[in-house]
Amino acid sequence: MNGRKVAFKVVSDSNDQHVVVRSGSPAEINVQVDGDFGLAVDADLPPLGSESRNLKISHEQWSADRRQLTLEVSGLGAMSYVIRAYGARISSASGAELRSMLNGSQVLEIKLPREGVRSGFVTRKIELRF
Question: Which fold has domain 35-129?
Answer without folding.
Answer: Chondroitinase Ac; Chain A, domain 3 (2.60.220)
